[in-house]
Design goal:
It contains 9 helices and 12 strands. Helix 4 runs antiparallel to helix 5. The protein has 3 domains: about 160 residues, Immunoglobulin-like; about 90 residues; about 60 residues. The longest helix has 26 residues. It is α/β, with parallel strands linked by helices.
């Protein structure tokens, strides 16, 4: 009884050693991480040693990326097999001169490898100290699942080979979409602008100078400039909505749209609360001001000297037109007198 139990335990251990655990690996390839290596070494046997080197290569215009799986057999005497179809043991023995080791007594067929491209991939046999390559095309942002049952065999009599052990590597390979080179710069600009706006208190007081809209103006212009740069990049690249860069740039747009200005009714800075402009010339028309300046011009033209008080009055009139109570109409043309007033002012004030 004890002897039979011992034999059963030995058989179970032998069977377990023939079927290694599956390994499920996530492989993310990017511009900075373009290569990864996975090792198959059943039972930690030095003579059953396969390296799988996964490398990101060039990306094509349609967004597909060439990815290679280089299978390097570092064994001294073992062959490595990946089967394109699930051959049964009769087919293996007859067509490929391969048999199962006795530990595979309950297994009637091999498992096929799959690389997610449909159809039946070719059988792969890698001799000791040799290598073979599998080439994939993976679209940026997508994941490809490759299932690789890896079989190790040794020479057997009559030029046959005997499968000793196998293990399955499940590789979940994805290629990250590269971030557009302008994104980090614009993101930094956006964050710096938000920090600058957060540090400012905007005053709504009617006497505050400059008024609220003028206080906001440089920041609003900066927001529009960044938005314009983003729209130019999006128009140029035509990324689909699922693209990583499309999402990142639209997150920036959302961030800019969400900017708020901290406004108060009264900032408390009385030095900035100037009284509205009000001088004796505010009530005069542009025609009247033009006539007054014409008189000063004629006086100067006749050789009469202008006093400091005269020049102060002239400057007061001109400032009232340009910056004071007449400013709005002045910007609209000064009722047709703007050019004449400017010419008289320059002629009078210049030496």
């Amino acid at each position: 009884m004890k002897k039979s139990t011992f034999i059963l335990v030995c058989l179970c251990l032998a069977a377990l050693s023939s079927f290694a655990q599956n390994e499920d690996r996530i492989v993310r390839l990017s511009e900075n991480h373009y290569c990864d290596t996975i090792t198959s070494r059943p039972d930690n046997d030095d003579d059953m040693f396969l390296n799988i080197i996964i490398t990101k290569n060039e990306t094509y215009l349609n967004g597909d990326t060439k990815v290679t799986l280089e299978l390097e057999n570092f064994s001294d005497s073992r062959h490595v097999h990946l089967f394109g179809r699930a051959y049964d043991k009769t087919e293996l023995k007859k067509d490929y001169r391969i048999i199962f080791d006795k530990n595979f007594r309950n297994q009637n067929r091999v498992e096929k490898y799959e690389i997610g491209e449909g159809g039946h991939p070719q059988d792969i046999e890698i001799e000791p100290e040799e290598a073979k390559t599998i080439t994939l095309r993976i679209k940026e942002g997508d994941e490809r699942i490759c299932t690789l049952p890896i079989y190790f065999s040794k020479k057997f009599k009559c030029k046959r080979r005997k499968i000793l052990v196998y293990e399955t590597k499940i590789l979940r390979i994805s290629v990250e979409e590269p971030i557009d080179e302008n994104y980090n710069k614009l993101n930094q600009k956006c964050d710096s602008l938000i920090d600058a706006i957060d540090d400012v208190v905007f005053c709504k007081h009617k006497s505050h100078r400059p008024p609220l809209e003028k206080q906001k103006e440089p920041y609003v212009n900066a927001i529009h400039k960044i938005q314009s740069e983003i729209n130019t990049i999006l128009d140029k690249n035509h990324w689909p909505k699922t693209n990583k860069n499309y999402k990142l740039y639209h997150e920036l747009i959302t961030k800019l749209d969400g900017i708020t200005f901290y406004e108060v009714d009264d900032c408390g800075n009385k030095a900035l609360h100037n009284k509205p402009h009000n001088c004796k010339y505010c009530s005069k028309s542009f025609k009247e001001i033009c006539t007054i300046l014409q008189n000063y011009y004629q006086k100067k033209d006749l050789g009469e000297s202008l006093t400091a008080n005269d020049k102060a009055e002239i400057k007061m009139m001109y400032d009232c037109c340009k910056l004071g109570g007449h400013a709005k109409k002045w910007n609209a043309g000064g009722d047709g007198y703007k050019k004449q007033i400017e010419n008289y002012y320059k002629a009078i004030m210049n030496p």
